Amino acid sequence: MKMRLSLQHLCFFLMLAILVLLPFVNDSRTLIILLTQIFIFGILAMSYDILLGYTGIVSFGHAMFFGIGAYTTAVMLKQMEPTLSTFLISIVVGMLLAGFISFLVGLLTLRLKNHFFAMLTLSFSGLFLVVAEKWRSVTYGNDGFTFKAPEIFKDRMTFYFFVLTCLVVIFIALYRFVNSPTGRILIAVRENEQRTKSLGYNTLYYKVIASVVAGTVASLAGSLYAVSLRFVNTSVMTMDITLDALLMTIIGGVGTLVGPLLGSAVIEYAQHALSGLARDYPIFERWIIFFGILYILAVIFFPKGIIGSLRMMFWKWRLKHKEKNQSSVALSQEKERFE
Amino acid sequence: MNTLLKLNDVHTYIGQYHILQGVNFEAMEGQVSVLLGRNGAGKTTTLKTIMGLTPASKGDVEFRTHSIKKSPTYKVAKLGIGYVPENQGIFADLTVEENMKVAMRKEDTATFERQNYVLELFPDLKKFWKKAGGHLSGGQKQMLSMARAFINDSKLMLIDEPSKGLAPIVVEKVMEAIVEMKKQTSIILVEQNFMMASRIGDTYTLIDDGRTVHSGNMQDLIHHEELKRKYLGIG
User: Fold this and answer.
1) How confident is the model at residue A65 (pLDDT cuts 50, 70, 90)?
2) pTM, entire model
3) Residue B15 phi/psi, 5° resolution?
4) Which class for A202: exposed (0-12), middle (13-18), buried (19 or more C-beta within 10 A)?
5) Which residues of B touch A195 (CB under 8 A)?
6) With an 8 Å Cβ cutoff, are B53 and A1 in contact?
7) How far is the alpha carbon of B101 from chain A, nearest alpha carbon, in Å?
8) Cα distance from A82 to chain B (closest Cα, Å)?
9) Is the pLDDT of residue A284 over 80?
10) CB 3.0–4.6 Å: which of A58, A63, B23, B84 could bond B159 by disulfide?
């Protein structure tokens, strides 16, 4: 256990060092923008993992919280002075708003069975989408609006490091959360809700906690996304965003936290690479078809997600290794006895 | 001897099915009360109704003279009723240690003393302390499930078919553990294995087609061949 933990820490610091040094080694604007997108969607996917992977809740309305963060930041930066402090305040306001709404939505819907809950979250998300479309005086409807980002983020590198810092902080916070006593109860709810109830836990309370945590973190991702584009429209609240988060989590490996990050990297990179190929090969103009094939292949070959499948391979290897060791020990003992 | 739990003419529906159609039952303090009956008679539903997992639609469930019929499951558990379900309900992704920790409602000295006590009862759990619950054998899962229910100061334990699917040697161990637990808590036991039930139980209640058909002292039932043949198919 100790060995595994230190190996995990080593991987974490190694990855962090690479991500910190990478922009100095290769300062390609495209690469930095791509990595920033990966980090932002990584935060969103990790928030979704709290729901799906750790609590067993399938939500079709997660984009609602992403949109709340995106719109809060965009509106505040447009209506007020676009300074760093306005941006930071907008993040906090967005997170509080998303936390409050996820609390209310969770309280109203999480009593229901999973599929009813999923449908209700979809309708709540639709409701917010309609509000964003119709409240034109603030949101400019479907067309959306551009706004100025804080001066400091004019340099893409600064924004890259800001998002990376957010990612690291959120990763550590969520890692601690899922390994806390509350996190253990969430896993218990995922595995057997009735049993958790009969151990004396009000499971609704814990599911609402998970919903609030996930909603708040998704809102942060939304705020960062809006600033990365300097533009917002209703697409931030559409089902596509929720599906992206869902696929990133499933492809990376549910209930692992690292998996969704990896899933975000795979999907963002695939989208970028496949759409890029269209310039040279016309067939890739229909890149979305290849993207679909990629999803199907991933689900066939990595049913437990990339991290889940790797873990399983590792366990199998360890078991084989252990069996081999045991049989060689038995063989040598037999040999000693014989001699 | 005081009545700990009382079911008065309890009716329970699961979906459109009328499963319990008038269960009357009393569990006394310090005793092992056994619920007996054929498969599908309604024994497991009776336990689930007590826990509030399948709430009663009619009748009343009283625990220490207070009605718990409308209480949600988590409140019933907090009153001191521990439940060991038929399928054990182990959290497969959590280790044995984490399974025990999740079950602890308080982390005080008394709880840790009880933990040490159950670990003495079930030494296998100590051995596999860091192993994931999903990797335990059927018997070990049963032990963990019972240990989890016992770790809190349970006034009453509901144990559903602890011998189901276990090897005879493991059944023996589980039975010994229940006898030990009996010294500290009252137990309602659902058991198909009549040999085991008759060795542990003080009183019995026979359920057939969702109704209580007979109850009394276990010693009387042991010698009542007709009842055993009619309702349990043995004798």
Assistant:
1) very high
2) 0.86
3) 60, -125
4) middle
5) 85, 89, 91
6) no
7) 8
8) 47
9) no
10) B84
